[in-house]
Amino acid sequence: MSQKCQMKLLGAAGSPYVTRVEIALKLKCIDYEYIEEDLCNKSELLLTSNPVFRRVPVLFHANEHPITESLAIIEYLDEIKPNVHPLLPSNPLDRVRCRVLAYTYDTQKS
């Protein structure tokens, strides 16, 4: 009997933000179910789980509230599995530098 995945990732092919979360999930050795979202015809699941921004990725973990935004999802994954391939430094100052760098990268206009 197969065990049902406790994590589900709502994403869209080609999204670098979804890819970022998928890499983190794989590095942390976390099984998850991937749910493909059609961004041209947004599902009720996306609209109710991320009503403000209406974008992917969205992570669902067990019966918790959905987690949105790739960097927040990665921090969450690092907190629930801190001893499996840490993604962020343990030092608070180094961690904030990583957040600033990621924010700067995400907000640069091409």
UniProtKB/TrEMBL annotation:
Its EC number is 2.5.1.18. PROSITE patterns: GST_NTER. Keywords: Cytoplasm, Transferase. GO terms for molecular function: glutathione transferase activity. SUPFAM superfamilies: Thioredoxin-like. Pfam families: GST_N. GO terms for cellular component: cytosol. Its main location: cytoplasm. Residues 5-85 form the GST N-terminal domain. It catalyses: RX + glutathione = an S-substituted glutathione + a halide anion + H(+). The keyword Cytoplasm applies. InterPro entries: Glutathione_S-Trfase_N (IPR004045), Omega/Tau-like (IPR045073), Thioredoxin-like_sf (IPR036249). The keyword Iron does not apply. It is found in: Cytoplasm, Cytosol. GO terms for biological process: glutathione metabolic process. Is involved in the conjugation of reduced glutathione to a wide number of exogenous and endogenous hydrophobic electrophiles. Belongs to the GST superfamily. This is Glutathione S-transferase.
